[in-house]
Specification:
By secondary structure, the protein is of the alpha+beta class. It contains four helices and four strands; from the N terminus they run ααββααββ. It has one domain (about 5-85): Alpha-Beta Plaits (2-Layer Sandwich), CATH 3.30.70. Strands 1-2-3-4 form a four-stranded mixed β-sheet, with helices on one face.
Length: about 90
């Protein structure tokens, strides 16, 4: 199974796709880390609950990939606009 397929399966296992409306994800491997950029509404910058909702996802993904660091980049409007980073 390809790495991206394993990540997609893990996101499905964690229930990510059931909890959020359709969204855009961008996955990048940097060294041994997986950076998953998730397109978010701008409320992620002002509403602590919106940000905190992603913390369990990062922890669940980290457990599924103990040999790789999982980093969630919460982006607004473009991939270059990382509003929050969860490691």
């Amino acid at each position: 199974m390809e790495e991206i397929d394993k990540l997609a399966a893990a996101l499905t296992t964690t229930g990510f796709f059931k909890k959020v409306p359709p969204t855009v994800l961008y996955v990048k491997k940097v060294d041994n880390n997986y950076e998953i950029s998730i397109s978010c509404y701008s409320t992620v910058t002002t509403d602590p609950d919106a940000y905190k909702a992603f913390v369990p996802l990062q922890k669940s993904m980290q457990k599924l990939f103990p040999s790789n660091k999982i980093i969630l980049n919460l982006v607004v409007d473009s991939l270059d606009n990382v509003e929050k980073r969860i490691e």
